[in-house]
Design goal:
The complex is a heterodimer of chains A (311) and B (151).
Chain A lengths: L17 H16 L10 E6 L5 H12 L3 E5 L6 H5 L3 H9 L4 E6 L4 H6 L6 E6 L5 H15 L6 E5 L6 H10 L5 E5 L8 H9 L4 E4 L11 E4 L9 H8 L17 E3 L20 H20 L8
Parallel strand pairs in A: 1-2, 1-3, 3-4, 5-6, 5-8, 6-7, 8-9
Helix pairs in contact in A: 1-6, 1-10, 2-10, 6-7, 6-10
Chain B lengths: L1 H5 L5 E9 L3 H7 L9 E8 L5 E8 L5 H7 L7 E6 L2 E7 L5 E3 L2 E2 L15 E6 L4 E4 L5 E3 L4 E2 L2
Classes of the chains: A alpha/beta (311), B mainly beta (151).
Amino acid sequence: MNNPLYQKNIISIADLSRSDLELILQTAHSLKQTPQPELLKNKVIASCFFEASTRTRLSFETAVQRLGGSVIGFDSGGNTSLAQKGETLADSVKIIASYADAFFMRHPQEGAARLASEFTSIPVINGGDGSNQHPTQTLLDLFTIYETQATLDNLNIAFVGDLKYGRTVHSLAQALSLFNCNFYFISPEALAMPDYILEELKERNINFSLHSSIEDVVDDLDILYMTRVQKERFDETEYQHMKSAFLLNADMLNNVRDNLKVLHPLPRIDEINIDVDETPYAYYFQQAQNGVFARQALLALLLTNHFQANA
Amino acid sequence: MQKKLQVEAIEQGSVIDHIPAQQGVKILKFFKFTQTKEKITIGLNLATHNGESKDLIKIENTFFNDQQANQLALFAPNATINQIKDFKVVNKFQVQLPSSFIGVLACPNSNCISHNEPVQTRFYVLQKNTLKLKCHYCEKSFERGTFDELD
């Protein structure tokens, strides 16, 4: 059977249907269980970072190499002719894409990946476009939730921290809304989930509630998704006063469900105390490792038409 | 007397009626009517029977195609266009808001890639009543009032 993602672009999580997401998660699971070190043999993948990123780039390039492909590209846009000679992104993409079989990119401007996909016929994977989308992060988050809960349906999921500016939580909430999860949004008022996301959830009849402390809901959760509250958005007194409500430590996990997992897109600063690392609920380091499998799954599906995931 | 001025006939051309007050001049500029040699009559802040104000534009020897009529909806979602031939209204229709606008508006997001690249802007209509539009590239949504038109 042909796979529906063959030669497609991965630009925005909203472009993917529930069945597309399930196919990607099954493929990631399969590749984690059964490595395919020759799948991308003789394939060249462009890894173009017009803006620096450490984890996403290393995770993606590892994914290519674990599948037997090779990588060309650059890790900072500052050295490219685009930056130095004023070449348009459209021209850069046309040239680079003529060398490669797929194009993975991060760019500081919103819409860059969508635009790139219009100037090449090879698949483009968005590794982050400004404050807009970061779909491979969302896919690794979904994969981690699926892996730890054995389902994505009807879960109780809390998002904690900066819910206003965090594109990660926006995309993940949008994707999970396809699976009828219950959401708990826990943030300082100034960093609350934007209205447009709440409106979308209402339109989809998704249950959600707003809270001002983790302890209000932690005992009912399947997933606790932590993010960093950026200190620079508050003055020092205000920050010290409110941060304790959004910090997690091991004592708060005494009565939680056995299946609870704590996730975080990393880097963490102090929002997850290191004593949580030793609990059975900590899963953020495995989550980061899952980025390699989620990205392998995309490469496998975009570049091989008949790849069969082992269910 | 005022009513007579508003409906003064033209031999051939278009009459755009039911334009919200303040939008008439924007429409002239957008369609580059300020550069045409055709005879144009404009009425600004004209009284309507329900007590509100409206603008009105009459332009000779000029007709709107469907795409132009749809673009008019950006400024005047309830406008009507009367096509005049031999001093008679031969066709009268209300503008229809299209599902998208291509190459018409600049993205209000200054960090949107569409500003620097050889592409036409594209916006999808999310909400017709408040005229909320979503950028094809940066995926951000904006209400009509935040947009500038492209030159």
